[in-house]
Amino acid sequence: MKKRWPSLLLGVAVSVVALVYLFRRDLSGVQSELRSANYVWVVPCLLLSYVGLWLRSLRWRVLLGYRIAPAHSFHILNVSYFVNGVLPLRVGELVRAALAARLDPPLPVFTSLSTIVVERLLDTLAVFALIGVVLAMLPVGLEIGFVGMALGAGAVIGVIVLALFAVRPAWAHALLDGLARVIPPLRRPALRAWLSSALEGIRPLASPRTMLLVVGWTAVAWAVSVLTGYSLLFAVFDEPTWSAAIAMIALASFAIAVPAVPGNLGPFEAAIVFALASTKLVAGPTAAPAVAFALLLHAVNLLTYISAGLVGLWVEGVSLGEVTTAAQGLRLRGQGAAPTRTDNSTGTNVSA
């Protein structure tokens, strides 16, 4: 735990700085915007959020080779998102593996964790594609438009490269070896180990049918995310734009990787207001409507994850304490500090 204190303190500092920046001028204006918001639009936003979670659970089930029932994939994924939203250090990813390992039959921990690699890679490519779409839509210079098209094309190429490496993993190792001859830092054993894990994770993409399904569910899920954000914009703005919705979804995804307090309070709001300002929906990132909307969207997101996560815990028959304890056991085992074991109090098999 001592080793994590610097990360936790850095997260608190980042959140505080972001919040001070956002609220340094027009706090009364933000309060006024929140009082006058049309909260009817929260309902379709929530419904679309649950649809998005369901679509992502379908993608995860495909990556697992249909070895898990749809209900389990939905509820376990929701619990992991819930834990990531309320606890620091991305504990939810280990929670997902721990819950999948307690099913009958159990899923190997490494199998669950390897699917997260695929999800991250595909989601990163999806975000690049979204940014490319925004740049292509905005009335910017020709050079910026070309950047947008390049990002969109890069996302497509990235998917093709993933499929190629899934079929020919030796080519990925050969590429790393070639780059390492030119770039000495790439010779680190840890990087080679990470590549091996990543290649193991994308192995399901070697099947054309699986590849198409996973990419398809990814595209639909992100489209629903954009639609979700667009619907909530009507709560604060009279004439929202699709470019603003796409930009805020893309930048908010990057904000998740920024150190912050649990729930990503501060960086999330900063990403949203800068997206709205960059697409000219508001005059500046500290404009009261932008800050008010960012707070509202964050609240709806947390409500979605908490409600879906609590239902998931209830359906799976575990408590938050039990799953976090099981996740901690996986973390310690990964560090070589804990043996394989089965927790009889929770029925959680944490063996790989």
Task: Tell me what the structure shows.
The protein is mostly helical. The chain has one domain (44-349). The chain is 73% helix and 1% strand. The protein contains 14 helices and two strands. The chain has helices spanning 5-23, 27-36, 42-63, 70-86, 91-101, 109-137, 142-167, 169-182, 189-201, 208-233, 242-255, 267-278, 288-316, 320-334, and strands at residues 342-343, 348-349. Strand 1 and strand 2 form a beta hairpin. Helix 8 packs antiparallel against helix 9. 41% of the residues are buried. Residues 336-352 have low confidence and may be disordered.
Blueprint (SSEs and pairs):
Elements: H1 5-23, H2 27-36, H3 42-63, H4 70-86, H5 91-101, H6 109-137, H7 142-167, H8 169-182, H9 189-201, H10 208-233, H11 242-255, H12 267-278, H13 288-316, H14 320-334, E1 342-343, E2 348-349
Antiparallel strand pairs: 1-2
Largest sheet: 2 strands, antiparallel
What series of H and E elements makes up the topology?
A: HHHHHHHHHHHHHHEE
Fraction in beta strands:
under 5%
Structural class by SSE content: mainly alpha
Helix content: over 70%
Q: End-to-end distance, in Å?
A: 24 Å
In total, the number of domains comes to 1
Walk across the major sheet and give the strand order.
Answer: 1-2
The global form is globular
Alpha plus pi helix count: 14
The Rg value, from CA coordinates, equals 21 Å
Kindly state the mean pLDDT as a whole number? 80
Low-confidence stretches: 336-352
How many β strands by DSSP? 2
